[in-house]
Amino acid sequence: MNREKQLEYRKKAKELVEAMTLEEKVSQTTHSAAAIPRLGIKAYNWWNEGLHGVARAGVATVFPQAIGLAATFDEELIHEVADVISTEARAKFHMQQKYGDTDIYKGLTFWAPNVNIFRDPRWGRGHETFGEDPYLTSRLGVCFIEGLQGDDESHMKVAACAKHFAVHSGPEDVRHSFDAEVSKKDMFETYLPAFEACVKEGKVEAVMGAYNRTNGEPCCGSKTLLEDILRKSWGFEGHVTSDCWAIKDFHEHHGVTSSALESVAMAMENGCDLNCGSIFLYLVEAVKKGMVSEERLNEAVENLMVARLKLGLFDDPKDVVYSGITYENNDTKQHRDLNLKASIKSFVLLKNENDLLPLDKKKIKTIGIIGPNSNNRRALVGNYEGTASRYITVTEGIQDYLGDDVRVLVSEGCHLCKEKVSGLGQVNDRISEVRGVCESSDVIIACMGLDSGLEGEEGDEGNEFASGDKPNLKLPGLQEDVLKELEKSGKPVVLVLLSGSALAVTWADEHIPAILQGWYPGAEGGRALASVLFGENSPEGKLPVTFYRSTEELPAFTDYSMKDRTYRYMKQDALYPFGYGLSYTDFSCSQVSLSKNEILNGNTITIKAVLKNEGTRKGAQTLQVYVKSEREDAPNAQLKAFQKVELEPGEEKELQVVLEDRSFALRDNNGDLVLDPGTYYVYTGTQQPDKRSSELTGKVCTCSTVIVKERTILEPCCID
What we know:
Elements: H1 3-18, H2 22-27, E1 32-33, E2 44-45, H3 66-71, H4 75-98, H5 134-149, E3 161-165, E4 179-180, H6 184-191, H7 193-200, E5 206-209, E6 213-214, E7 217-218, H8 223-233, E8 239-241, H9 249-254, H10 260-269, H11 283-288, H12 294-310, H13 333-346, E9 348-352, E10 366-370, H14 378-381, H15 394-402, E11 407-411, H16 431-440, E12 443-449, H17 479-488, E13 493-498, H18 506-511, E14 514-517, H19 525-533, H20 566-569, E15 587-594, E16 604-613, E17 619-629, E18 638-647, E19 652-660, E20 666-667, E21 673-675, E22 678-685, H21 691-697, E23 702-708, E24 712-715
Parallel strand pairs: 3-5, 4-6, 5-8, 10-11, 10-12, 12-13, 13-14
Antiparallel strand pairs: 1-2, 6-7, 9-14, 15-16, 16-19, 17-18, 17-22, 20-21, 21-24, 22-23
Helix pairs in contact: 1-12, 4-5, 4-13, 5-7, 13-19, 15-19
């Protein structure tokens, strides 16, 4: 947005705030902001959700859940999806305003994306994120924000919000009282980079604080996070909102204050501008008692008025370029087509023994679809979802695709997590049907996994496992028992996993010939899956998270140290590594070159590589570049660049990515970003450079060396 416009909005906001009484100012600091008719300020509800589509306000395009979008490793696609979300947001907002509807979920301030790091696969909200890697999360987070907020010089399309700041990833059932203790090294190397990128590059309008404490300070009232890091070090100019009812946790659960009055004073004085909830109404008393300065309150309300001015909410509609978006621009065919495309791109092929996939429908007379997610709409969408005008489940997608050409037999197989489907039935009450379908089928599609009733947010209606978190990484209930029955039938089995997180499918890896990770693939998920299963499209997704072999190899869920966590710090081999994903075609990566072999402060290195489609099918591949320091205490090779390309059979393209000096730097124990002297290994290929990835793909990355001669502190830590 034009800098002059921003200064103009700041001046106008100051004028508005100067004209308000104390009570009127305070009335603007809760998510349900009151109207001030005498100043031309309408009532406004700040709370809206748009994680993977406009949510909770009726019909909108329901895209794949965030973790599935992350698996595309496709920055352009993420931007395109976010742009459609903001178009539909405007379409619905203008319609709602026309009819005087200012209810919750009806504004233009969207509390997305979630750029927390998915450090532990048990975390129920991990599927809201872009995965476990700070670099991937940073790049996709910035693209998502830019797609939401638009590129107009005068107005934002919608306002995005990076959440939950910071060091937040479960456990859900203690989030209101939990203290995430973390070293400066881990904080600045893992938990903060995505937020920093969202602020500095994405120019995100809002940042939401987390429920928990970080190193003793409640995040929504943390001087360290909100003042020292966000405002002073990063130069954030937008507004800060609390998570919902998080401020009352200060006294009710964290015990850092003794009353509501003290809690609101702590939050406001330390930089929280907006309260999701109503406890900020105590600010009138807090200001009168001198616990909060009116100057700080003025600043908070100015920040909020600036956001509304940026959105054009006080302007004549004819002066706002986005005002021309009408309700006809919601849930269009073009948007559904993009949804289908995103879904197809999100699937990750984990195993394909003897090229069982793609299936040839001309060679199949009867296909069996078995499993609790075969016809489960909830397993299409994840959480923070909108309402689709049509949902296409796995069963429906395959039925529609095959028509009358192939007989389709279906069985739920078992309950998603319980030991029987019918309340009065015996344990495993669908097993005879499973056997019957197997006997009559030429090939079996096993549709297993989770849904948002089993992994999600603490307090979500329907969560049956551990307040939304997973107790372990196993397939729940009787799913593995049913899977073993399918394998015993002797028929070819394709396992389709619909889940928002990694599952320890070690038995399946040993016994099932083909495995496809489908995430929560959106309302078009069944149609997308059918097109991949039968070869119209080749899978191209890469894992944004590590798939572990067992729950037992994980550190304690409450341990926020990164030691032994994620691909960057784990010592054991993964079941399926971060960055891994197969295709129906074959790609080579060759002619890797570096523009220089020494990196200095302020310099960059350009890497070139040629990707070629060596196979007979069209497909897409992701060039991945990882950097590893030879230092003993350094992390494993870390993702530092990636680029996606589509190639026809026989086609090749030269790709180019750039590594900055920061790509080689690591945080020391003081939190300083240091470029240490020594040798660095740069791995270029289509996967991570670990042993397991090579075992699974038969490919190795090209290793180049880069030298650093002098120690340089690129960025001193901004906190004591």
